[in-house]
Protein backbone atom coordinates (compact mmCIF):
# COMPACT_ATOMS: atom_id res chain seq x y z
CA UNK A 1 0.00 0.00 0.00
CA UNK A 2 1.43 3.35 -0.97
CA UNK A 3 0.83 6.82 0.36
CA UNK A 4 -0.84 8.82 -2.47
CA UNK A 5 0.85 12.06 -1.39
CA UNK A 6 4.41 10.74 -1.49
CA UNK A 7 3.97 7.69 -3.73
CA UNK A 8 6.14 5.58 -1.44
CA UNK A 9 5.33 2.46 0.57
CA UNK A 10 3.62 3.03 3.89
CA UNK A 11 5.41 2.15 7.10
CA UNK A 12 3.17 -0.89 7.60
CA UNK A 13 3.94 -2.44 4.22
CA UNK A 14 7.67 -1.69 4.58
CA UNK A 15 7.65 -3.24 8.07
CA UNK A 16 5.83 -6.33 6.80
CA UNK A 17 8.38 -6.73 4.00
CA UNK A 18 11.26 -6.37 6.48
CA UNK A 19 9.72 -8.97 8.80
CA UNK A 20 9.27 -11.36 5.88
CA UNK A 21 12.88 -10.89 4.75
CA UNK A 22 14.19 -11.35 8.28
CA UNK A 23 12.18 -14.55 8.61
CA UNK A 24 13.74 -16.00 5.47
CA UNK A 25 17.28 -15.13 6.60
CA UNK A 26 16.85 -16.58 10.08
CA UNK A 27 18.13 -20.14 10.46
CA UNK A 28 15.49 -22.73 11.10
CA UNK A 29 15.16 -23.34 14.82
CA UNK A 30 14.35 -26.49 16.66
CA UNK A 31 13.04 -24.68 19.70
CA UNK A 32 9.36 -25.13 20.54
CA UNK A 33 9.25 -22.70 23.47
CA UNK A 34 7.62 -19.95 21.35
CA UNK A 35 4.61 -22.24 20.95
CA UNK A 36 4.01 -21.99 24.71
CA UNK A 37 2.38 -18.61 24.11
CA UNK A 38 -0.39 -20.46 22.24
CA UNK A 39 -1.20 -22.66 25.23
CA UNK A 40 -3.93 -20.37 26.64
CA UNK A 41 -5.67 -20.44 23.26
CA UNK A 42 -5.40 -24.23 23.04
CA UNK A 43 -6.73 -24.66 26.58
CA UNK A 44 -9.89 -22.74 25.62
CA UNK A 45 -10.69 -25.68 23.35
CA UNK A 46 -10.35 -28.51 25.87
CA UNK A 47 -13.36 -30.49 24.62
CA UNK A 48 -12.24 -30.32 20.99
CA UNK A 49 -8.71 -31.25 22.07
CA UNK A 50 -10.02 -34.26 24.02
CA UNK A 51 -12.16 -35.40 21.09
CA UNK A 52 -9.24 -35.01 18.69
CA UNK A 53 -7.14 -37.18 21.03
CA UNK A 54 -9.87 -39.83 21.30
CA UNK A 55 -10.31 -39.99 17.53
CA UNK A 56 -6.53 -40.11 17.08
CA UNK A 57 -6.36 -43.18 19.32
CA UNK A 58 -9.35 -44.80 17.60
CA UNK A 59 -7.88 -44.14 14.15
CA UNK A 60 -4.55 -45.62 15.27
CA UNK A 61 -6.34 -48.69 16.66
CA UNK A 62 -8.29 -49.12 13.41
CA UNK A 63 -5.05 -48.74 11.46
CA UNK A 64 -3.48 -51.49 13.55
CA UNK A 65 -6.56 -53.67 13.03
CA UNK A 66 -6.18 -53.70 9.21
CA UNK A 67 -3.43 -56.39 9.19
CA UNK A 68 -5.49 -58.47 11.61
CA UNK A 69 -8.49 -58.17 9.29
CA UNK A 70 -6.32 -59.24 6.33
CA UNK A 71 -5.12 -62.22 8.35
CA UNK A 72 -8.78 -63.08 8.95
CA UNK A 73 -9.47 -62.92 5.22
CA UNK A 74 -6.59 -65.28 4.50
CA UNK A 75 -6.96 -67.67 7.45
CA UNK A 76 -10.72 -67.88 7.79
CA UNK A 77 -11.79 -66.98 4.27
CA UNK A 78 -9.47 -68.57 1.75
CA UNK A 79 -8.21 -71.36 4.00
CA UNK A 80 -11.72 -72.47 4.92
CA UNK A 81 -12.73 -72.51 1.28
CA UNK A 82 -16.36 -71.65 1.95
CA UNK A 83 -17.88 -68.69 0.16
CA UNK A 84 -19.73 -67.54 3.26
CA UNK A 85 -16.48 -67.45 5.24
CA UNK A 86 -14.76 -65.39 2.50
CA UNK A 87 -17.71 -62.99 2.43
CA UNK A 88 -17.66 -62.56 6.22
CA UNK A 89 -13.90 -62.01 6.22
CA UNK A 90 -14.12 -59.34 3.48
CA UNK A 91 -17.04 -57.69 5.25
CA UNK A 92 -14.92 -57.57 8.41
CA UNK A 93 -12.04 -55.99 6.45
CA UNK A 94 -14.43 -53.44 4.87
CA UNK A 95 -15.83 -52.64 8.33
CA UNK A 96 -12.34 -52.01 9.68
CA UNK A 97 -11.52 -49.81 6.69
CA UNK A 98 -14.78 -47.89 7.15
CA UNK A 99 -14.07 -47.35 10.86
CA UNK A 100 -10.55 -46.20 10.05
CA UNK A 101 -11.94 -43.69 7.54
CA UNK A 102 -14.56 -42.34 9.97
CA UNK A 103 -12.08 -42.04 12.85
CA UNK A 104 -9.42 -40.41 10.66
CA UNK A 105 -11.93 -37.93 9.22
CA UNK A 106 -13.19 -37.09 12.72
CA UNK A 107 -9.65 -36.55 13.98
CA UNK A 108 -8.88 -34.34 11.00
CA UNK A 109 -12.09 -32.35 11.59
CA UNK A 110 -11.31 -31.65 15.25
CA UNK A 111 -7.64 -30.82 14.64
CA UNK A 112 -8.65 -28.42 11.84
CA UNK A 113 -11.37 -26.91 14.02
CA UNK A 114 -8.89 -26.31 16.85
CA UNK A 115 -6.43 -24.64 14.47
CA UNK A 116 -9.08 -22.44 12.88
CA UNK A 117 -10.51 -21.38 16.25
CA UNK A 118 -7.06 -20.56 17.62
CA UNK A 119 -6.34 -18.40 14.56
CA UNK A 120 -9.75 -16.69 14.98
CA UNK A 121 -9.05 -16.06 18.68
CA UNK A 122 -5.61 -14.65 17.89
CA UNK A 123 -7.07 -12.45 15.16
CA UNK A 124 -9.74 -11.19 17.59
CA UNK A 125 -7.13 -10.39 20.24
CA UNK A 126 -4.98 -8.53 17.71
CA UNK A 127 -7.96 -6.48 16.49
CA UNK A 128 -9.02 -5.75 20.07
CA UNK A 129 -5.50 -4.61 20.88
CA UNK A 130 -5.31 -2.41 17.78
CA UNK A 131 -8.74 -0.90 18.39
CA UNK A 132 -7.87 -0.13 22.01
CA UNK A 133 -5.10 2.22 20.90
CA UNK A 134 -5.84 5.94 21.17
CA UNK A 135 -6.90 7.59 17.89
CA UNK A 136 -3.81 9.82 17.70
CA UNK A 137 -1.37 7.01 18.37
CA UNK A 138 -0.62 6.43 14.68
CA UNK A 139 0.19 10.11 14.15
CA UNK A 140 2.36 10.01 17.26
CA UNK A 141 4.29 7.02 15.85
CA UNK A 142 4.80 8.73 12.50
CA UNK A 143 6.26 11.79 14.27
CA UNK A 144 8.32 9.52 16.55
CA UNK A 145 9.95 7.71 13.62
CA UNK A 146 10.49 10.66 11.27
CA UNK A 147 13.23 13.05 12.45
CA UNK A 148 12.04 15.62 9.89
CA UNK A 149 8.51 15.71 11.34
CA UNK A 150 7.63 18.97 13.10
CA UNK A 151 6.51 17.13 16.28
CA UNK A 152 9.43 14.68 16.36
CA UNK A 153 11.46 16.44 19.03
CA UNK A 154 8.43 17.21 21.21
CA UNK A 155 7.21 13.59 21.04
CA UNK A 156 10.65 12.21 21.87
CA UNK A 157 10.92 14.57 24.85
CA UNK A 158 7.41 13.81 26.04
CA UNK A 159 7.67 10.01 25.75
CA UNK A 160 11.21 9.72 27.12
CA UNK A 161 14.20 7.75 25.93
CA UNK A 162 12.95 4.40 27.23
CA UNK A 163 9.76 4.44 25.12
CA UNK A 164 9.61 1.59 22.66
CA UNK A 165 6.54 1.58 20.39
CA UNK A 166 7.01 -2.12 19.61
CA UNK A 167 6.99 -3.10 23.31
CA UNK A 168 3.64 -1.51 24.18
CA UNK A 169 1.97 -3.70 26.82
CA UNK A 170 -1.58 -2.74 27.77
CA UNK A 171 -1.59 -5.01 30.84
CA UNK A 172 1.49 -3.26 32.29
CA UNK A 173 -0.05 0.14 31.66
CA UNK A 174 -3.36 -0.82 33.24
CA UNK A 175 -1.50 -2.24 36.25
CA UNK A 176 0.51 0.99 36.60
CA UNK A 177 -2.71 3.03 36.47
CA UNK A 178 -4.32 0.83 39.16
CA UNK A 179 -1.25 1.20 41.40
CA UNK A 180 -1.21 4.97 40.88
CA UNK A 181 -4.91 5.24 41.72
CA UNK A 182 -4.43 3.08 44.83
CA UNK A 183 -1.53 5.26 45.98
CA UNK A 184 -3.50 8.49 45.65
CA UNK A 185 -6.21 6.90 47.88
CA UNK A 186 -9.07 8.77 46.31
CA UNK A 187 -7.29 12.15 46.45
CA UNK A 188 -7.65 12.50 42.70
CA UNK A 189 -11.11 12.97 41.26
CA UNK A 190 -11.76 12.30 37.62
CA UNK A 191 -13.25 15.23 35.79
CA UNK A 192 -14.71 15.43 32.36
CA UNK A 193 -12.98 17.83 30.05
CA UNK A 194 -15.27 20.34 28.30
Compile the SSE list and pairings.
Blueprint lengths: L1 E2 L4 E2 L1 H15 L13 H5 L2 H33 L4 H49 L5 H9 L6 H8 L10 H15 L10
Antiparallel strand pairs: 1-2
What does this structure look like?
- The chain is mainly alpha-helical and 194 residues long.
- It is 69% helix and 2% strand.
- It is built from seven helices and two strands, in the order ββααααααα.
- It has a two-stranded antiparallel ribbon with strand order 1-2.
- α3 packs antiparallel against α4 and α5 packs across α6.
- It is elongated and about 95 Å long.
- The two termini are 38 Å apart.
- The C terminus is likely disordered.
Task: Write the element-wise H/E pattern from the N-terminal end onward.
Answer: EEHHHHHHH
Average pLDDT confidence is 79
**How far apart, in Å, are the first and last alpha carbons?**
38 Å
Report the count of strand segments: 2
**Helical segment tally?**
7
Name the beta content range. under 5%
Structural shape: elongated
In the predicted model, the low-confidence regions spanning at least 5 consecutive residues are 190-194
- Structural class by helix and strand composition: mainly alpha
What is the CA-atom radius of gyration, in angstroms? 30 Å
List keywords for this structure.
194 residues, mainly alpha, two-stranded antiparallel ribbon, 7 helices
Amino acid sequence: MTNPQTDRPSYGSAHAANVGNAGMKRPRGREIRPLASLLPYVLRRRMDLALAGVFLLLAAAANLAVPVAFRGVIDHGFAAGAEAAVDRAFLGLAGVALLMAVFSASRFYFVSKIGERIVADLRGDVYTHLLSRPPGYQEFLEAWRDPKHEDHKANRTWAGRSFDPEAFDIEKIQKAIRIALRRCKGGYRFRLEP
